Amino acid sequence: MLSLLPLTLLAAPQALPPEGAIPRAAPRVRLHLVEDPARFAALLGATERGDLRRVDFEEVQGIGADPVLIRPERYAESDGLILTGEGGQYVHTDFRFPHDYAAGDSRVQFAPGPIAPPQARGWRGGCRTQATFVHAGRPARVAGFGAVFVDADWPDRAPCRLAAYDQNGVLLGETAGFSGANGSRLFRGLVALDEDHQPAAVIARVELVSGDEWPWVDVSEGVVLDDLVFSPPTSGQQWRPTWFAGGEEREARIDAELAELAGHHPWAGSYYQGDGTGVNVSLKLAPDGGFYFSWHGCLGEYDRNFGRISIDEAGLIHLHCERPNVRKGFQGIDELLAPVRWGDRRYLLPPEKVVSFLAEEGGRWEPRDSIWGFDLLRLGDEDKAVAGAPERIVE
Fold first, then answer.
1. Is residue 235 a part of any domain in this protein?
2. Is residue 241 included in any domain, yes or no?
3. Same domain for 187 and 44
4. What is the pLDDT of residues 106-123, one digit of tens each?
5. Please, which residues have CB within 8 angstroms of residue 292's CB and are 6 or more apart in sequence?
6. Is residue 172 included in any domain, yes or no?
7. Looking at the structure, do residues 281 and 224 belong to the same domain, yes or no?
8. Count of structural domains, the chain
9. Which of 85, 158, 267, 361 gives 20 to 30 Å between its CA and that of 310?
10. Count of alpha carbons within 13 Å of 179, Cβ hemisphere only?
């Protein structure tokens, strides 16, 4: 089964038949489950965009009766891969079970530590691996990742799993519970494609669960890994799906209206809240032009939205979003805001926060003396002194 969450919409995971993608009404990045290595390469356009990166561990020397420990960053410089087992990273030819862990064309295979003794009871050693990516010394992302699971044949007892996450730790999709015959070599890959069916480099981390024990513990389900394959990592500006495009004309109209108002309006303006790193929320709004919202972080733009505004009888500002507004993770904006005056400062607050803000006169963090803060404050007002107590604007 493949569960999927699109890049810009967090919703309940949906079931998916083998090989395919979950359809969405709006353009989204879609994560595809692939069970054939040739199709995996084709979806990523490997022949047109350069060879895929492949780690098969064949270059490791000195393997004898015992597994060889390798460093997590062994393949960082050559392939952009950091491979981290929960208790070390080990390679061996057959992990003492040559009939189960058939090497196929490969001589060397992989398993995460820690190592457990063959007759272990209770504690069974390692079975979880994390793959992350680097490019030019910086964290990076890939458009697809796949691996061969060797001897995954007891899914009811210990299901194997392959899961992909974005740079914010949000689950993009997973496949789990797959199985084959004794000694089988099952390829499973996840590929992210945009609405034009082009590879989208949004996968920042991959988790692999191989059974539930160290491979040579003869108690439950031991599984080893082989032939890790992935698209070349990239660390440039965050890939932005086509769905993010738009809103520039509205933003230009708002900028022009704000320039004409020249600050002579009770709440119109450009507002900001954030920490200068992963949270940088900007909101521009004007009575006729509407609003334009964007969220930027360390890797680029995470979200944007725009639309018209309306004012209700209580003086609350309603943002009528033209795009789905999902407030989870590094995205989304409050659609209902209360304008607050504090001297010459202007704030926009969710209605549920207004009472405490007024009663506590800004609470612990306001009035702030820099741009950074947890409430939407009109740009430039951080330099203005406050006078008296804050009050709601109802105009």
1. no
2. no
3. yes
4. 789 999 999 988 776 666
5. 247, 250, 251, 254, 283, 284, 285, 304, 306
6. yes
7. no
8. 2
9. 361
10. 13
> Using alpha carbons only, what angle is made at residue 311 by residues 266 and 272, rounded to the nearest 5 degrees?
55
CA atoms within 13 A on the CB side of 202: 31
Phi, psi (5° rounding) for residue 237? -55, 145
Domain boundary among 181, 204, 230: 230
286 sits in which H/E element:
strand 280-286
Given phi > 0 = left and psi -120 to 50 = alpha, else beta, which region is 197? Answer: left
Give the pLDDT confidence score for residue 283 in this predicted structure. 97
Tell whether 337 and 302 lie within a shared domain: yes
Amino acid identity of residue 152, one-letter, is: A
327 in the same domain as 216: no
Say yes or no: 127 and 206 in one domain. yes
Going by C-alpha positions, the residue among 216, 221, 212, 156 that lies closest to residue 184 is 221
Per-residue pLDDT reduced to its tens digit, 77-115: 999 999 999 899 999 998 888 888 876 667 899 999 999
Q: Global pTM?
A: 0.57
State the amino acid at position 194 in one-letter form: D
Residue 243 confidence (pLDDT): 45
From CA 309, how far away is CA 317, in angstroms rounded?
7
Pair 189, 41 in one domain: yes
Query: What tens digit of pLDDT does each residue of 319-328 get?
Result: 999 988 878 7
Structural domain boundaries enclosing 250: 246-392
For residue 201, what are its two tokens?
């480099």
Q: Which of 230, 258, 287 is the last residue of a domain?
A: 230
Residue 100, φ and ψ in degrees, nearest 5: -85, -45
- Which residues are bridge partners to 68 per DSSP? 91
Is residue 133 assigned to a domain? yes
- How would residue 277 be classed by pLDDT, with cut points 50, 70 and 90? confident
Q: What is the rounded distance in angstroms from the CA atom of residue 106 to the CA atom of residue 108?
A: 6
pLDDT of residue 237: 45
Distance of CA 66 to the CA centre of its chain: 37
- Give the three-class secondary structure for 194: coil
Query: What's the rounded Cα separation, in Å, for the pair 134 and 235?
Result: 7
Sign (positive or negative) of CA dihedral 258, 259, 260, 265: positive
